[in-house]
Amino acid sequence: MAVLLETTVGDLVIDLYTEERPRACLNFLKLCKVKYYNFCLIYNVQRDFIIQTGDPTGTGRGGESIFCQLYGDQARFFEAEKVPRIRHKKKGTVSMVNNGSDQHGSQFLITTGENLDYLDGVHTVFGEVTEGMDVLKTINETFVDKDFIPYQDIRINHTVILEDPFDDPPGLCVPDRSPEPTKEQLDSGRIGADEEIDDMKGRPADEIEEVRAEKEAKSHAILLEMVGDLPDADIKPPENVLFVCKLNPVTTGEDLEIIFSRFGPIKSCEVIRDWKTGESVCYAFIEFEKEEDCEKAYFKMDNVLIDDRRIHVDFSQSVAKVKWKGKAGQYTKEDFKDYEKECDKPSKFAVKEKVKPKRDAKYDLVLDEDIEESHTSQSHLAKKQKQKKHHHCEEDNKRTKKSKESDQKHEEHCREKNRHRHLSRSRYKERDYTYSRQKDKYR
After folding, report:
1. Which of 51, 141, 162, 328 could be a cystine partner for 2, CB 3.0 to 4.6 Å?
2. Closest by alpha carbon to 29, among 101, 106, 83?
3. What average pLDDT values come out for the chain (443 residues) when binned by 10 residues?
4. CB-based burial label for 131 (10 Å; 0-12, 13-18, 19+)
5. Is the pTM of this model over 0.85?
6. 334-348: b (≥16 Cβ within 10 Å) or e
7. Where does 211-289 show beta strands of DSSP type E?
8. Are 20 and 132 in contact (CB under 8 A)?
9. Handedness of CA 149, 150, 151, 153 (dihedral sign)
């Protein structure tokens, strides 16, 4: 059970869920059979969301079901089928559009995004796109206005029923052939589906070449801006600077300034030289104060003989000295080159914690802020060291006093011991002497 939709950008094949959504599929198949969808506009394209069609008026407010043709206006819409529930999970899901009262007519949508859960329960899924996903992608990427209407018409040209399981209801009028489109149907006020969008059509060859060269120059300018060689893609060279080439190598900037100063005051005159050898590369830039003086010199000095050489004069196309807009117009390209050179140089400073002291280094290089911090830290350390020293001295004094006192006590104790020993010895001697005398006496 499938239907082929032939559109102006390609063909789509839709497989229908006839068992799950019999009423919606019957309505869609019979509308295709009576060629109701022929020349219908795709009038709503929301990228990566949906594309909507099925309204012959192309406004999104019209359309009617097949039952209206069979039973009259009271059957313009039919009730939505909600069981079984089918979700909008994948791209290419086809659903009947809800008219706001849980009813459907002829309008349908095709999803171009995945997992569109907020459409579930509102619009009735009745099929899916099985062939022509590239065509669906093309429609999805078309250019639209603020109301999501494509600038160029995309239409359903023809519908072909590949398989129809439903019998035709009585009273259904099936045309013998596809009807021809009316002028009102094709007049949408937009670019026609069969119109070729070619801006160059009808223009002369030289104008086409000029436009092409302008576009190419614009793309080159954007590329140079991206790589940093131009401050701005829309920048224009100064109109008061002349480019002079084919110079004699002996010609200096002073010579050119004397020659060209007769046309007006000159701001600067620079002969470009080789950065290695310092020799002239035979061209120069002359900047006048006024544009009128620059124009006079351009017309008068071209092909003039200077130092046995015929010079060529043209307006300068260089923007090397134009101030860059990206830095508020304060710096030139040379300033940025100097800045990049400075950035490439190795840094003379380092974080104090990460600096590894050298063995043979006499001094450490630190920032001014670090010097102040080091002075304060050194003063704090000196105070702490003094306090510790004083504390240690007091402790040493106390220890020496205690040691002296203990030594004195020890000496006194030793003296007392010696004295007691001496006394005890004398007593023992006296006792021995008395004892011996008594012993002699009794003898």
Report:
1. 162
2. 106
3. 93 95 95 94 95 93 92 92 92 94 95 93 95 95 94 94 92 88 84 78 85 88 82 84 94 93 93 91 93 93 93 89 53 60 60 49 47 59 63 64 67 67 56 56 50
4. middle
5. no
6. eeeeeeeeeeeeeee
7. 241-245, 266-273, 280-288
8. no
9. negative
